[in-house]
C-alpha cells in the first residue's frame, strides 16, 4: 500500500516537473506566454458606446405612442428593455415589437402599472441587414387632465445581444416629455 502511494506521488511530481521544463523551454524560445493559459474575454475598457438606444414620440393625443429606437453598426439579435415611467401620469396600453426584426420573438413581457416598470425582452432567429430602427413600440394612455412633464428612462437591466460580439457598451438616452392632454 505504501509502495503504491510512493509511485503515485512520484508520477505526480514527475508530471509537474515536465510541465515546468516545458514552460521554461517555451518562454526561452521567445513565446510570451505559458503553453497552458486560459484567456477570458477582455472587458470593455474604452467606454465608447457601440450602440445607442433612445425614445422617439410617434404620435400624440389621448394615446401617446413612443418608439424605442436603436442605432448601431452591429447586427442586433435581441434586446432586454427595462423602461420606467410615472404611473400617476401614464398607463401602458400596449407594447409590441418595432420594425427592426422581420420575425420578432417576444421572450418576456412584464408590466407593473403600480410602480411604472416595464420589462420587455425580444429577439430574432433571422437577423436582417437593418442595424438601425425601432426595437419596440409603446402606447400609453394619458391619465392627467393638465399639462405635465415626465421622464421615460431605461433601467439598469437594459441590454442588447449582437451577432459580432458578446457584451457591448450602450448609450441610453432617456426621454423628457411634456404631456399635453
Describe how the helices and strands are arranged.
Blueprint: H1 2-28, E1 51-59, E2 63-72, E3 76-84, E4 90-97, E5 104-112, E6 117-124, E7 133-142, E8 148-154, E9 159-162, E10 170-173, E11 175-179
Parallel strand pairs: 1-10
Antiparallel strand pairs: 1-2, 2-7, 3-6, 3-8, 3-9, 4-7, 5-6, 8-11
What gross morphology would you assign?
A: elongated
What's the overall average pLDDT, rounded? 81
CATH class wording of the largest domain: Mainly Beta
Q: Helix/strand/pairing class, anyone? A: mainly beta
Secondary structure tally, helices: 1
Low-confidence stretches: 32-46
Largest sheet: 6 strands, antiparallel
Helical residues, percent: 10-25%
CATH architectural label of the largest domain: Sandwich
The domain tally reads: 2
CATH topology of the largest domain: Immunoglobulin-like
Head-to-tail CA distance between termini? 88 Å
**H/E series, N to C?**
HEEEEEEEEEEE
DSSP strand count: 11
Rg from alpha-carbon coordinates:
27 Å
Strand content: over 45%
In short:
This protein has one helix and eleven strands; from the N terminus they run αβββββββββββ. The protein has one helix spanning 2-28; strands at 51-59, 63-72, 76-84, 90-97, 104-112, 117-124, 133-142, 148-154, 159-162, 170-173, 175-179.
How does this structure look, described?
The protein is mainly beta. The protein folds into 2 domains: 1-40; 51-179, Immunoglobulin-like (Sandwich). It has one helix spanning 2-28; strands spanning 51-59, 63-72, 76-84, 90-97, 104-112, 117-124, 133-142, 148-154, 159-162, 170-173, 175-179. The longest helix has 27 residues, at 2-28. It is elongated, with a radius of gyration of 27 Å. The termini are far apart. Mean pLDDT is 81; it is low at 32-46.
Amino acid at each position: 500500500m505504501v509502495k503504491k502511494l510512493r509511485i503515485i506521488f512520484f508520477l505526480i511530481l514527475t508530471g509537474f516537473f515536465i510541465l515546468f521544463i516545458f514552460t521554461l523551454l517555451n518562454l526561452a524560445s521567445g513565446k510570451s506566454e505559458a503553453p497552458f493559459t486560459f484567456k477570458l474575454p477582455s472587458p470593455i475598457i474604452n467606454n465608447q458606446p457601440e450602440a445607442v438606444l433612445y425614445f422617439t414620440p410617434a404620435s400624440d393625443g389621448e394615446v401617446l405612442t413612443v418608439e424605442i429606437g436603436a442605432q448601431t453598426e452591429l447586427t442586433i439579435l435581441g434586446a432586454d428593455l427595462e423602461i420606467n415611467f410615472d404611473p400617476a401620469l401614464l398607463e401602458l396600453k400596449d407594447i409590441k415589437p418595432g420594425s427592426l426584426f422581420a420575425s420578432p420573438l417576444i421572450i418576456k413581457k412584464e408590466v407593473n402599472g403600480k410602480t411604472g416598470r416595464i420589462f420587455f425582452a425580444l429577439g430574432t432567429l433571422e437577423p436582417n441587414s437593418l442595424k438601425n430602427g425601432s426595437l419596440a413600440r409603446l402606447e400609453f394612455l394619458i391619465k392627467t387632465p393638465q399639462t405635465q412633464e415626465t421622464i421615460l428612462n431605461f433601467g439598469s437591466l437594459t441590454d442588447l445581444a449582437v451577432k459580432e460580439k458578446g457584451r457591448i457598451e450602450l448609450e441610453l438616452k432617456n426621454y423628457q416629455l411634456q404631456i399635453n392632454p
